[in-house]
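Reminder: ligand-aware prediction takes two inputs, not one.
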Amino acid sequence: MDSNTHNSIHEHGHGHVLQVEKVFHMTSRVGENSYSHNSALQREKGNDVGPCFIAGMPGSFYGRLFPSKSLDFVHSSYGVHWLSKVPQGINNNKGNIYMGKTSPHNVFEAYLEQFQSDFSLLLRSRADEIKLGGQMILTFIGRSIKDPTTRDCYLVLELLAKCLLNMAAEGLIEEADIDTFNLPHDTHFIEEVKIIVEKEGSFVIDQLETFEVNMDANDNEENKNCGFDKFTCGQNVSRCYRAVLESLLVDHFGQAIIDDLFERYAEFIVEYLSMEKTKNFNIVISMERK
Ligand SMILES: C[S@@+](CC[C@H](N)C(=O)[O-])C[C@H]1O[C@@H](n2cnc3c(N)ncnc32)[C@H](O)[C@@H]1O
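Here is what comes back for the chain with S-adenosylmethionine:
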């Protein structure tokens, strides 16, 4: 988000209310309006936060989780770019693990249909749970371009597919296993997100913003060297995606290939980063329950 709110907590009756002390616009990489300055201020204020109630809900956010009309505010961070399942009928996605330049047309359609169905269900489920006038803010990886095979559209997955194909060429895995492996993940196109919210009809969008994050999250102003040390960046990115994807890959290909795969992946990322610096594109959407 390019702005963030710095809150202070005040006693109010039996509980606490959050009052906005100052709004910070995170529009630059250094100084007063930087992310690091904002984070430092939030750390200072962290100890002032009063008691909070934490609960785990057993279930998927693609369906009901909470009692009807019980919520004032919902926030999901970095979750809803995961689909509820791998889109069906895409075993012909040869040599790809997501939508790629060589994917057949039906793969693009299947991913879009899965997103439309999942996102509509998420909206419908939260609409039942959020009180009228309540608010929902979702933050997720997305894309600004309709074509999912272009720049800000998860190039990292294409590099991972290349590593798998190299391993298949060396006889370490079966190429047919790559063809049948597809990720239940989507980079939602910003215009499509708007259309689904409008069509579902329970929420009105009051703000929609985008922001970019370096492919290597450590590559920020506080760690200037990283921008020049491509090897460290490659390792960081590889470890990060290993943390996210390992269990899915192990399920399909087995544990034995994982160390080798992510060593190759780090090398691919290093090679890529020596040509250009890549950022992930993110969407933040704020909606009010009608
Ligand atoms: C990248 S993590 C984000 C975690 C945390 N919200 C944050 O911002 O650091 C994505 C999380 O979404 C969860 N997730 C993915 N699909 C989900 C679903 N359908 N229902 C509930 N949680 C889901 C995953 O289990 C994972 O914990």
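Strands lie at 3-12, 15-25, 71-77, 130-143, 188-189, 203-214, 279-289. DSSP finds seven helices and seven strands in the chain. We will return to this case in the review session.
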